[in-house]
Amino acid sequence: MPRCISETRFVDEFSMLLREAGIGPCRVIFTDDVRAEAPIPKRAFADTLCSDVIEFRFAPEARCIPYDCRQGVMMHEIGHVLADKALGPNHTEDDADRVAVDLFGVEITYDTSWPGKGLQRVRRR
Predict the structure, then answer these.
(1) Does the reported pTM lie above 0.85?
(2) What pLDDT, on a 0 to 100 scale, did the predictor assign at position 2?
(3) Dihedral-angle region of residue 86 (phi above 0 means left; psi in -120 to 50 means alpha; beta otherwise)
(4) What are the pLDDT digits (tens) for 58-79?
(5) Residue partners of 61: CB distance under 8 A and separation at least 6
(6) Does residue 27 surpass a pLDDT of 70?
């Protein structure tokens, strides 16, 4: 795994994507709860809660995954917010990927060296 980046750098990277997506006020939280509540903790780096205030929760370890995976995770979580608005709260993981791909113009693939389906990663088209 690469060297971890700071929370500040992580939030800066994420903020650029949020601006591109047109997502306004939200909370970005680093918490171990993301991994504790996940069915596959080794692959759980983020989740999103869409309510009055959008909350993006990242595991502290998200700062330590490779850049292409970090970007994939971030874009996927943004995809959840946009899919929630377009399709409602019962949208799927694949819906979140599709929305993110359309918005950011990247392909979201899955690195199968991680457990389960794998970890999101981006590949520029």
Answers:
(1) yes
(2) 63
(3) alpha
(4) 999 999 999 999 999 999 999 9
(5) 35, 45
(6) yes
Q: In a 10 Å sphere around its CB, with 0-12 CB exposed, 13-18 middle and 19+ buried, how is residue 80 labelled?
A: buried
What is the CATH T-level fold of the domain 7-124, as seen in this structure? Zincin-like (3.30.2010)
CA dihedral 61, 74, 35, 121 (to 10 degrees): -80
Cβ distance 55 to 29 under 8 Å? yes
Burial class (CB in 10 A: 0-12, 13-18, 19+), 105: exposed
Using the structure block, give the residue that is written with the tokens 């409602």.
88
CA distance 91 to 25: 22
Mean pLDDT in residue range 29-42: 82
